[in-house]
């Protein structure tokens, strides 16, 4: 299976090397089911660093009156898995990701963690293809829609409290969390589902129960506040 490079490159506004683009969109589940192909986690590692630097420099230069704490809060909100997944949805990235059968059947194209990782991998691929300046420009284009939502900055720092306040304000009561875990004891993964008003609103993943609940809370906050914008 090959990626429609032209369509995605047009959306991104940058010409990424075809092999690197393929690699950036190859999830490990697909790689394992197809003979142990290379997958996107190394590119994700690279892209995470480039994303963080680009956002940090932008916030520092464009907000001379903000102190370190406020800058850190804004950076956290822009590089979170929820924010990156929102970016991915905006560019329909899920339709391009290469997934294994199991992930395909369990809604992998809508999973925030998979989408966020793919965004970071694309940034890494752009860096290797066209250099640091173009990769930074790509990051700034991708996060630009998020900058118009100032409420996001507070929610990213304390998502459970922010969700509780929002849920109460809209008359849905206190959120509830259901957490499951999987994997061996030395490498467990936790998955949290948050219910608001009795309805499952969002899920989150993490290496601890706390991380999973925070990810789910931030995703649910984004869902609940969207109609109010």
Written description of the protein model:
Residues 3-131 form the RNase III domain. Keywords: Cytoplasm, Endonuclease, Hydrolase, Magnesium, Metal-binding, mRNA processing, Nuclease, RNA-binding, rRNA processing, rRNA-binding, tRNA processing. It holds the Pfam family Ribonucleas_3_3. The active site is at residues 48, 120. GO terms for molecular function: ribonuclease III activity. This protein is mostly helical. The chain has two domains: 5-150, Ribonuclease iii, N-terminal Endonuclease Domain, Chain A (Orthogonal Bundle); 158-228, Double Stranded RNA Binding Domain (2-Layer Sandwich), CATH 3.30.160.20. It contains twelve helices and three strands. Strands 1-2-3 form a three-stranded antiparallel β-sheet. A hairpin with a 2-residue loop joins strand 2 and strand 3. Helix 4 (41-62) packs antiparallel against helix 5 (68-79) and helix 4 packs across helix 9 (132-143). It is globular. The relative contact order is 0.13.
